Amino acid sequence: MLLIREFIRHILLEDVELCPIPKVIFMAGGPGSGKSTVIRALGLQQNLHVVNPDDMYEESLRAAGIPLQRGDLVNDYKQIKKKYNQAEEDNDADLLISLEPEYLALRAVMSQNMKLFATARKAAKEQQHEYACDRQSFLVDGTGGDSRAIRKQVRDLRDQGYDVAMIYIDVPLETSIARNNARGEAGGRQLHDDTVTKSWSAVNKNRELYSEFFGNNFFYIDASDEKFEDGISEIRTPVTDFLNEAENGG
Asked: Is there a contact between 59 and 175 (Cβ–Cβ < 8 Å)?
């Protein structure tokens, strides 16, 4: 299998001077880490198509009239579901009748929410596939919590002749939670603190793995409040060099 991959890679890169090597950058960082800020600060959207399932998801939530503050929605559903299940166990018919309208309404919203989430993820994958088929450069904006999925994507892209990099944005958990809450207060999508903690933990345990996997194309930013701007400045030149490289460095 390795020999076949190397052969395909060799064929794809034979005419590199005539066909510039496309680039892909993966973003990684927990909720509130500042991925969108980094993308704007580095002007990456000017050079790369941006694939962001969260943008598609938020648009679909607005269209469906579902609040972006998903944390409150999840909490409300968990609480009433617990009460409803307890009432069932206790055979408390009167309580069941009083709880049922709100319980069923919230359950329907949660079900629709998850369907919209899955649809957005599927659409993002299809968009990414289309860019790859056309050998266009693009950026994948996500948390990086699923290392196996990212490694598979990277291997496939490298087999297609892509140069691949990652921008990893590191932020303290308390900062991640605070920024997520501030985003909600400003009218954006807000996750529950438990969800933020889970996502933050998932991506942070992958840091060393990603550093080894991407090698020289792993760009690290300390996004704590006092270091964020300097962190962006430190990777500006390396990221620009990566995008402008004529030869495959993967």
From this structure: no
Is residue 196 helix, strand or coil? helix
Return the pLDDT at 248.
Answer: 43
pLDDT at residue 12 is higher than 70: no
Query: How high is the pLDDT of residue 2?
Result: 55
DSSP three-state, residue 77: helix
| Of residues 250, 243, 237, the one with CA closest to residue 46 | 243
Torsion of CA 182, 186, 187, 189, to 10 degrees: -30
Among candidate residues 21, 36, 27, 29, the one with its CA nearest the CA of residue 140: 27
- b/e per residue, 16-32, with b = 16+ CB within 10 A? eeeeebbbbbbbbbbbb
Alpha helices (H) along the chain: 2-13, 35-42, 53-64, 70-89, 93-133, 147-159, 173-185, 193-204, 207-214, 228-244
pLDDT of residue 163 exceeding 90: yes
CA distance linking residue 186 with residue 179, whole number of Å? 10
The pTM of the whole model exceeds 0.85: no
Are 26 and 38 in contact by the 8 Å Cβ rule? The answer is no
